[in-house]
Design goal:
Number of strands: 10
Helix content: 25-40%
Radius of gyration: 29 Å
Structural class: alpha+beta
Shape: globular
């Protein structure tokens, strides 16, 4: 299913046209973990200095000066800390009200712990060569990713075990390793021929397994232009309701209609698919992304069931990096 995207409110990034590095997300896409709220500090009570050697200049009945000044200090301190207490109460009430008025996914950190999102490190766009536009800028007619493609692959979340088989040589993956994702020999040969015919330049990849057993593989395939990448994506590898070639372990796959529309990213074409029950040993989810001159394939599999939230989170973050 092809979807043109809009900014994700959980994990949004602002493109930088001048090529400087800019943050893509703060945790998760997920929104970053919340900073500790600044403590509300009441006015500092600094007692007046009383010199017992200074005589009183009061007129009339004699009142010990130190005692009067001490009483006034106590009164001022009481008033100040009473005011501070009111401020604490007001701030606490407003914070509590704000959280109760927000959806769980709008509260950074709270959503992360409750819905199964992964803890990704801070993600930034790699620097561009001086004067080079971003891939989806209007001035970039060919949709070229001028940044190093190997630095555009989403990093593994914290606690994951990295798949060394996808590191390749100097970060570039052999085409046959990518083709091994497809289920049948005929499909591998057909897809391989498509890549050759369309002038595949190189493939960057990364894979990992999280403690819950979810295995993730991400492949970025770069071509000479956005036009070529679009053709390889569709009608080459994808269609509206199913992928054209089955990946291993997911022979029966349909479009993932539950992927939220608000998780779309501008100008990145997405086809997301989910395996149809009954699953085999694992449930497999997959998504193809087309962004400029680059085509991405994301595959997640897990014994029993592959959870939707980390899959969506991964797809959105990789889309943002490619945009």
């Amino acid at each position: 299913m092809t979807e043109r995207t809009s900014s994700v409110e959980d994990a949004a990034a602002t493109p930088v046209e001048d090529g400087t590095t800019a943050p893509v997300q703060a945790q998760a896409a997920l929104p970053p973990a919340p900073e500790a709220p600044a403590a509300v500090v009441g006015p500092e009570a600094v007692p007046a200095v009383v010199d017992p050697q200074v005589p009183s200049t009061a007129v009339g009945a004699e009142v010990p000066p130190a005692r009067v000044r001490k009483d006034r200090r106590v009164l001022r301190a009481v008033l100040r800390w009473t005011a501070a207490t009111v401020v604490f109460a007001a701030v606490g009430t407003s914070v509590a009200y704000g959280i109760t008025r927000m959806d769980r996914t709008d509260v950074p950190g709270l959503a992360t712990e409750s819905d199964g999102r992964w803890d990704y490190p801070t993600i930034t766009w790699p620097p561009l060569p001086s004067g080079s536009p971003r891939p989806l800028a209007e001035s970039n007619k060919t949709g070229t990713h001028y940044a190093d493609l190997r630095r555009l692959v989403l990093p593994a979340p914290k606690g994951a075990h990295v798949d060394t088989a996808l590191r390749g040589t100097d970060g570039w993956l052999a085409t046959k390793t990518f083709l091994a994702e497809y289920a049948t020999r005929d499909d591998r040969e057909t897809v391989g021929q498509q890549l050759t015919d369309n002038g595949l330049r190189h493939i960057a990849a990364r894979g990992w397994t999280t403690p819950d057993g979810t295995h993730t593989r991400i492949y970025l395939l770069q071509f000479d232009s956005a036009v070529v990448a679009d053709e390889v994506n569709s009608p080459g590898l994808t269609s509206y309701n199913m992928p054209n070639y089955a990946v291993r372990g997911a022979e029966r796959t349909m479009a993932d209609d539950r992927f939220p529309d608000r998780a779309a990213v501008d100008d990145v074409v997405r086809h997301a698919y989910d395996e149809i029950k009954p699953y085999g040993a694992e449930q497999v989810r997959q998504a193809y992304l087309s962004a400029g001159d680059t085509l991405a394939l994301i595959v997640q599999s897990r014994k029993g069931a592959a959870r939707a939230v980390p899959f969506q989170q991964t797809v959105v973050l990789q889309s943002q990096l490619l945009g």
